[in-house]
Amino acid sequence: MDVDNKFFNVALLIVATLVVAKLISALLIPRSRKRLPPTVKAFPVMGGLIRFLKGPVVMLREEYPKLGSVFTLNLLNKNITFFIGPEVSSHFFKAAEADLSQQEVYQFNVPTFGPGVVFDVDYSVRQEQFRFFTE
């Protein structure tokens, strides 16, 4: 009986600590004023990856009607935001570098397009090249 009581007390202490930590972080850590896109519901850590690997097109077709043309999927520790459709894709091409770093995300495309093209150039040159896509 004494062991059960100790186990209950330890479990209660852990839960209370987590609740207090969450309350303190909610009060002290400022939240971003920006509206973030909705997130695909999945199991923590691996859930988004599992859904994506089962079929990205299937996942996109399921989530688009529920979440709209912009939504985020958590793949392991990275958030991937999808822009679906022409009404939102211009935000990707015209976003400020501070808001959406295309060069960082698409560095793997440099061998595809070659050096000095699209994602291997500085922001001003890239914006000039993207103007061709959006006009």
Structure characterization notes:
- The structure is a single chain.
- With 135 residues, the protein is mainly alpha-helical.
- 56% of the residues lie in helices and 9% in strands.
- It contains seven helices and two strands, in the order αααββαααα.
- It has helices spanning 2-28, 47-54, 56-67, 86-94, 102-105, 110-113, 123-134, and strands at 70-75, 78-83.
- A two-stranded antiparallel ribbon has the order 1-2.
- Strand 1 (70-75) and strand 2 (78-83) form a beta hairpin.
- The longest helix is centred in the N-terminal third of the chain and has 27 residues, at 2-28.
- The protein is elongated.
Distance between the termini: 75 Å
Task: Tell how many strands the DSSP assignment holds.
Answer: 2
Principal-axes shape call? elongated
Structural class: mainly alpha
Record the strand order, biggest sheet: 1-2
> What integer value in Å does the Rg equal?
22 Å
H/I helix tally: 7
- Uncertain runs are none
Strand content: 5-15%
Listing every helix as H and every strand as E from the N terminus to the C terminus, the arrangement reads HHHEEHHHH
Mean pLDDT level: 80
Share in helix: 55-70%
Main β-sheet description: 2 strands, antiparallel
List strands and helices in order, with pairings.
Blueprint: H1 2-28, H2 47-54, H3 56-67, E1 70-75, E2 78-83, H4 86-94, H5 102-105, H6 110-113, H7 123-134
Antiparallel strand pairs: 1-2
